[in-house]
Design brief:
Elements (H helix, E strand, L loop, with lengths): L4 H6 L1 E7 L1 E5 L4 E3 L4 E2 L3 E5 L6 E12 L3 E5 L2 E3 L3 H20 L9 E9 L10 H15 L6 H11 L11 E4 L13 E5 L7 E8 L8 H11 L1 H23 L3 H21 L9 H20 L7 E4 L6 E6 L3 H11 L8 H8 L3 H4 L5 H13 L11 E8 L5 E5 L17
Parallel strand pairs: 7-9
Antiparallel strand pairs: 1-6, 1-16, 2-5, 3-4, 5-10, 6-9, 7-8, 10-11, 12-14, 12-15, 13-14
Helix pairs in contact: 2-3, 2-4, 3-4, 6-7, 9-12
The structure holds ligand DP6.
């Protein structure tokens, strides 16, 4: 029986890549074809043991330029940007083959790609950054390119701008670059590894959303086309913020980090409102989170003047709040979230586990409810009200800051970890 088993296992790789959440936001492209941003940005890489994309790329025995893709088990058509990314990597392989005579001819073989996310789409987290970064890494290994991470970052960028930051762990800057001809200098670089600030972590508050959001690519182009505020932001605000946030990270200065993060999220949503017609990504849940975090920070500061901020919120192109905070403050913040955002009703323990995920371990923390009761009362006195409906927050995701993409296996070693079976179809 003609099976492609041998060839398949030789030229295959399986990789995982992490999600990243920006604190200085990327919003706007100066060149859509090359995916060059109007401003630099900076993100933190979340732990891929908790949230990840996983991708297997197999170079099949048969010749042809076809690429088949299965996302979470369902076959999908590749987007124009994915095709760009694949074409660019095949070109690099072809150059390599032309240079090294006798190199196996892989550039014009059919590719099979299977990719899954370990977080549900319902989690409301964009999977494009981790997914496209993972595709670049797995393709690199399957085609035997072994490109430097910075070059892979530029290639991932062709798939989705924010994907270029998922090539690194820890604290990652994406420099906008100045080369408008090739875009080769528009790449991400690691500012500090995940081990640099071990106390830092993230809590994602997944907000229920009724209306369909405007996809980021379309939204940001509308902003570029119509918002005068965006020009001001890119020219006069972001450059100084990039310097300041790198300093804050280097010095593990949470107050500076938190203020910059919140201000930049606010300004990103301000340029969305400045877009004509306007774009709204924040909803009433998001606004209630902002009010709670703001008052909470003020009350904590009144008790301990050495700290100005305890938690920092940031929002992407949707209503979910991401809170960056120090691990020691998670139990208290979680209790306040519970107090002010009644959770959906749980039919059983499973529902409860799904709602809290990894955050559950902080609930059982020694902190007693009496400790937060006083704080709750003060927040109520300061005007913070319980969110009127239960289920305003759909689930909570806790994450550490994590490392960059991992190759789980390449060549024959990919077989056991592969998402593809011997016939080249999803397992
Ligand atoms: C709000 O990277 O999804 O999350 O480059 O068009 O694929 P494309 O857009 P995308 O935009 C992300 C925007 C953001 C901010 C950020 O991640 O910096």
């Amino acid at each position: 029986r003609a099976r492609e088993t041998d060839g398949a296992v030789t030229h295959e790789a399986t990789a995982t890549a992490p999600v990243n959440i920006a604190v200085i936001k990327y919003w706007g492209k100066r060149n859509e074809a090359l995916m060059l941003p109007t401003n630099s940005s900076l993100s933190l890489t979340l732990d891929q043991d908790q949230l990840q994309s996983r991708t297997s790329v197999r170079v099949r025995a048969e010749r042809g330029d076809a690429v088949r893709l299965w996302l979470n088990g369902r076959e999908e058509k590749l987007s124009a940007r994915m095709l760009n990314l694949v074409a660019a990597m095949r070109r690099l392989r072809r150059e390599k083959e032309e240079e090294a005579k006798g190199a196996e001819e892989l550039a014009s073989r059919v590719l099979h790609v299977a990719s899954v996310n370990n977080f549900p789409t319902a989690a409301g987290l964009a999977s494009s950054a981790s997914g496209l970064a993972c595709l670049a890494v797995a393709l690199d290994a399957a085609l035997g390119l072994d490109l430097p991470r910075a070059q892979l970052s530029a290639l991932a960028r062709l798939g989705s701008g924010s994907a270029c930051r998922s090539l690194f762990g820890g604290f990652v800057a994406w420099d906008a670059g100045v080369n408008n001809a090739t875009g080769a200098d528009s790449v991400a670089r690691q500012v500090a590894p995940e081990t640099h600030w071990p106390a830092m972590c993230a809590l994602v508050l997944v907000a229920s959303a009724d209306q369909k959001e405007m996809p980021s690519s379309r939204g940001m182009q509308a902003t570029v086309d119509t918002s005068p505020l965006l020009l001001h932001r890119a020219a006069h605000v972001v450059p100084e913020r990039m310097r300041a946030i790198e300093r804050a990270i280097r010095d593990t200065d949470f107050d500076a980090f938190a203020e910059l993060t919140m201000r930049d999220s606010n300004q990103f949503h301000a340029v969305c409102l400045d877009t004509f017609p306007p774009i709204f990504y924040l909803n009433s849940v998001s606004q209630a989170v902002i009010a709670l975090v703001t008052r909470y920070n003020e009350l904590k500061h009144a008790k301990d003047s050495s700290r100005r901020f305890t938690a920092a919120y940031t929002f992407d192109a949707g209503p979910n709040a991401v809170l960056y905070l120090l691990k020691e403050d998670v139990p208290e913040v979680l209790r306040l979230v519970n107090a002010f955002f009644p959770h959906p009703s749980f039919a059983n323990d499973n529902d409860r586990d799904e709602y809290y995920g990894q955050a559950k371990k902080f609930l059982d923390d020694s902190l007693s409810s009496a400790d937060t009761a006083a704080l709750e009362k003060e927040l109520v006195e300061a005007g913070i009200r319980k969110f009127p409906q239960s289920g305003g927050i759909k689930r909570i995701i806790y994450s550490d800051i994590g490392d960059g993409p991992r190759i789980l296996g390449r060549g024959p070693d990919s077989r056991n970890v592969s998402l593809l079976n011997d016939d080249g179809l999803p397992k």
